[in-house]
């Protein structure tokens, strides 16, 4: 029978006796919990969630190429850091030596 436990359906046809295994462990649309933030995401989207959206994923400063900033922070904390455009522009032009945010960061 067709997989019907996920929305949208994955389109797989699975023998009835294998449906529980499929819906819990194999279906690409099954909901799984992110180990970092606890959010439930379709299995097929988990890699993208961690790379693009998970607030607990550690990411590098988006201004690294411009300013040489080496900050590595959780995405939820990076917004505050990245908004400090003054720091990043000054760093890029050599007017200051270090990122003030790094003094308070937990690593």
Assign the structural class, choosing from mainly alpha, mainly beta, alpha/beta, alpha+beta, or little secondary structure.
alpha+beta
User: Strand order, biggest sheet?
Assistant: 1-2
Number of strands: 4
Mean pLDDT: 79
Silhouette: rod-shaped
Low-confidence stretches: 103-107
H-E order? HEEHEHEHH
User: How can the largest sheet be summarized?
Assistant: 2 strands, antiparallel
What multimeric state do the chains show? single chain
Rg (C-alpha, Å)? 21 Å
Helix content: 25-40%
Q: Provide a count of the helices.
A: 5
The proportion of residues in beta strands is 5-15%
How far apart are the first and last residues' alpha carbons, in Å?
50 Å
Verbal overview:
- By secondary structure, the protein is α+β, with helices and mostly antiparallel strands.
- β1 and β2 form a beta hairpin.
- The relative contact order is 0.11.
- The longest helix has 8 residues, at 19-26.
- It contains five helices and four strands; from the N terminus they run αββαβαβαα.
- Strands 1-2 form a two-stranded antiparallel ribbon. The protein has a two-stranded antiparallel sheet with strand order 3-4.
- The protein has helices at 19-26, 46-52, 64-67, 75-82, 85-92; strands spanning 31-33, 40-42, 58-60, 72-74.
């Amino acid at each position: 029978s067709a997989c019907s436990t996920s929305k949208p359906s994955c389109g797989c046809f699975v023998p009835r006796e294998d449906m529980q295994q499929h819906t819990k462990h194999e279906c690409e649309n099954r909901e799984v919990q992110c180990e970092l933030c606890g959010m439930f995401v379709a299995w097929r989207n988990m890699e993208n969630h961690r790379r693009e959206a998970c607030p607990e994923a550690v990411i590098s400063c988006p201004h690294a190429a411009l300013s040489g900033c080496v900050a590595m922070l959780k995405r939820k904390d990076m917004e505050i850091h990245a908004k400090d455009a003054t720091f990043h522009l000054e760093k890029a032009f050599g007017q200051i030596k270090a990122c003030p945010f790094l003094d308070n960061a937990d690593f």
